[in-house]
Amino acid sequence: MISPKNGFALAVALVLSGCSSEAVVQSTPDPIALTEEAAGHYCQMVILEHQGPKAQMYLAGMPQPLWFSQVRDGLAYIKSPEQSAEILVMYVNDMGEAKSWSEPGEMNWIRADEAYYVVGSDATGGMGAPELAPFSNKDKAIEFANLRGGTVQRLSEISAEAVLAPVDNQEGSNQ
Asked: What are the residues facing 117 on neighbouring strands?
């Protein structure tokens, strides 16, 4: 039996393996632009009102993505033991292409499974929790880590604890 945590990895593996099943390829939607109507899955707040990178995720049977105010929240959804929906794809803002931390971009999406993440930096996301900064370019991720602390990891290397552990939300932000 496949666990929910491994379900995402299996779905990604099938899509990336070049599987001849057209249903798998056709069921992977493209990212859409971030708009004022996008509300966070957990908080139901307007995404654009929060700083830092965002995530959008498509689930099987849902034509619109789930939006996440922070990349951390999207990864928490994936790594949650209670998560049972079939995840088709997740996209995250490429912070190497962002105007700034406060303006992560509306269309600079990269697949979550192709990103380099800076984990454990001093960066906080839109909901005030520690954030994982995603980059499509490894060198830009290393540069961010050198400036802000943390380590560069791929999605498969990020532990569930890194995104599911409770956080101490202190007032203020280092942005």
From this structure: 134, 153
Say what the pTM is: 0.77
DSSP three-state, residue 82 = coil
Look at residues 68, 90, 81, 112 and name the one whose alpha carbon lies nearest to residue 5: 81
Residue with tokens 């490429």: 94
Q: Which tokens go with 46?
A: 């307007």
For the chain, helix (H) and strand (E) counts, in that order, are 5, 7
> Please, what are the domains in the chain?
4-161 (3.30.70.2060)
Query: What pLDDT digit, counting tens, does each position of 118-170 carry?
Result: 999 999 987 778 999 999 999 999 999 999 999 999 999 999 999 988 876 55
Residue type present at position 33? A
Token match 């303006």: residue?
Answer: 103
Q: What is the chain's mean pLDDT, rounded? A: 81
Specify the pairing of strand 116-119 against strand 151-154.
antiparallel
Secondary structure class of 26 (helix, strand, coil): helix
Locus of tokens 């992560």:
104
Q: Is pLDDT of 17 > 80?
A: no
Q: Name residue, tokens 């951390």.
A: 72
CA 152-157-162 angle, to 5 degrees, is 85
Instruction: Find, among 156, 145, 161, 8, the residue nearest to 88 by Cα.
Output: 8
